[in-house]
Specification:
Helices cover 43% and strands 14% of the residues. By secondary structure, it is an alpha/beta fold. The chain has a single domain (6-294), classed as TIM Barrel (Alpha-Beta Barrel). Strands 1-2-3-4-6-8-9-10 form an eight-stranded parallel β-barrel, surrounded by six helices. Strand 3 (73-79), helix 3 and strand 4 form a beta-alpha-beta unit. Helix 4 crosses helix 5 (179-189) and helix 9 (276-296) packs across helix 11 (311-323). The structure holds fe (ii) ion (2 copies). It comes from Kineosporia succinea. One of its GO terms (molecular function) is xylose isomerase activity.
């Protein structure tokens, strides 16, 4: 295995507000503060940046300098198409003017991707969907989801777009909600520069087996990126990777490994009450255990066990590799 690179969403190093701690879980930070903290993580190579940059009037050059100082590159730019102006949707907003605004907004973020030489535009249309039965015409809504992404991908063939699906939150039902539905949309768009960013926690939250989701996306040539974290499966808790579902995380990475999928292993965690640098270090240390586990996995034994659907034998092999025999 080549030298594995690790990344993180820059929001990992921000502070957060929710509907309870409306005064926030910490003093507000700018994106420059967050980049400085990310630079303190032991083994981080790249970050995914929210755009516009949070914390005030911050220029591309300010961010460039902070990244250089922290020794970090940019893997992706996440245009914020889920803030108040898009609360009734971005690509699926009922108002064509707001849909246009979303398009223009993401188009502007494309230039930021070019400027930083990032790998992709990360689309997380978290407000695209519905809340109540009878609220929307489902055919129209899905059509808008597909057209919104398709138009951007067609107009920017030099760039890659990744869709990060999630079942719900903030919308009660998100339009791009599952691996299968997102693949259907991408195949309908029919362009080579649109793929999936598979968030391990979103797959868990959606009742998927993340390894199976990864295999499906890979089989369609559409696994362009990934995030890891953990949760208790009932919500997108964005906890520290490896803390709750170590075996499923191991199977997920085994699936990437056996398909020769090479990309950044990226953290999408929200350490509300934890030290963000320590939380990132703990996750990356666990991911390194996963790497070691992959190196010693009894591949032949696993093949035989899987050929017979022998759950006990397969589990023993996986446990021996990850936890030691
Ligand atoms: Fe994510
Ligand atoms: Fe998430």
């Amino acid at each position: 295995m080549s030298e594995q690179r690790f990344g993180a969403g820059i929001w990992h190093f921000a502070t957060y507000v929710d509907r309870y701690a409306t005064d926030g879980y910490g003093e507000p930070r700018t994106i420059l503060d967050a980049i400085e903290l990310a630079g303190q993580v032991d083994d981080l190579s790249v970050v995914d940046l929210n755009w516009p940059f949070f914390g005030g009037d911050i220029s591309d050059d300010d961010v460039s300098k902070a990244l250089d100082k922290a020794g970090l590159g940019v893997i992706g730019i996440t245009p914020e198409i889920y803030t108040r102006q898009f609360s009734k949707g971005s690509f699926t907003n009922p108002d064509p003017g707001v849909r246009r605004l979303a398009h223009e907004f993401v188009t502007r973020s494309c230039d930021v991707v070019r400027k930083f030489g990032a790998d992709y535009v990360k689309l997380w249309p978290g407000q695209d969907g519905w809340d109540y039965p009878f609220q929307v015409d489902h055919g129209t809504l899905w059509q808008h989801s597909i057209e919104g992404v398709g138009q951007l991908a067609a107009e920017n063939p030099d760039l890659t777009f990744v869709i990060e699906y999630k079942p719900r939150e903030p919308r009660v039902h998100m339009s791009y909600s599952s691996v299968a539905r997102t693949l259907l949309g991408i195949e309908k768009i029919g362009l080579p520069n649109v793929g999936i960013l598979l968030d391990f926690g979103h797959a868990l939250f959606g009742g998927e087996s993340p390894a199976d989701s990864a295999q499906l996306a890979i089989d369609h040539g559409r696994l362009f990126g990934m995030d890891v974290n953990d949760n208790l499966r009932g919500w997108d808790d964005d906890m520290i990777a490896g803390t709750v579902h170590p075996i499923e995380l191991f199977e997920f990475f085994w699936t990437l490994h056996k398909n020769n999928w090479e990309g950044v292993w990226q953290l999408d965690q929200f350490p509300f009450r934890e030290d963000s640098v320590a939380a990132a270090n703990l996750a990356i240390d666990f991911l390194k255990r996963v790497q070691k586990g992959l190196a010693v996995l009894d591949v032949e034994g696993l093949k035989q066990a899987q050929a017979a659907h022998d759950a006990v034998a397969a589990q023993r092999i996986a446990q021996n590799a990850l936890f030691g025999s």
